Amino acid sequence: MNDSVLKPFGLHIKQLRKDTALSQEELAARCGLDRTYISGIERGLRNVSLINLFKLAKALDVAPEKLLAFEVDND
Amino acid sequence: MNDSVLKPFGLHIKQLRKDTALSQEELAARCGLDRTYISGIERGLRNVSLINLFKLAKALDVAPEKLLAFEVDND
User: Which residues lie below 8 Å from residue B30, measured CB to CB, with a gap of 6+?
Assistant: First the structure.
């Protein structure tokens, strides 16, 4: 299940970040996370925790549930 | 932010589990997780990862975004 969730999640976060015209650095600063961590999320390498999902949602100014509104890859 | 997210999340998961008339043991078995882990989630002690959120959603037969549709405590 890992790649089928983490990869599309990463692309979804990247799109939401671009929608708000934030750089990875800016998003990282807003979340209090490292830029390399944001980069890892967007590449599908990070299994983000609930707390960090809420930090991302706040930083992206979207409802938390919107972060999970993406299509999982079929595998 | 931790308790203000994890505690209401735990209560939300507990309610969703009860809505489907599953015991903690049954939910754990469906997720491939331990019953003590489910118990920890419901008591707000676990910072659940994205992968486990998707396992929980599948086991509870709800859309993943529904798991994040709860009110964070103000603190």
Answer: B22, B58, B59
Residue B17 and residue B9: Cα distance in Å, rounded? 12
Domains of chain A, each with CATH number or no CATH? 2-60 (1.10.260.40)
Q: How far is B73 from chain A (nearest CA, A)?
A: 12
CA distance B41 to A19: 33
CA atoms of B71 and B25, how far apart (whole Å): 26
Nearest residue of B to residue A9, measured between CA atoms: B50
What is the complex's ipTM, to 2 decimals? 0.93
Please name every residue paired with B49 in a beta bridge, in sequence order, or none if there are none: A49
Contact B66 A65 (CB under 8 A): yes
pLDDT digits over B27-61, tens only?
Answer: 999 999 999 999 999 999 999 999 999 999 999 99
CB-CB contact of A49 with B53 (8 Å): no
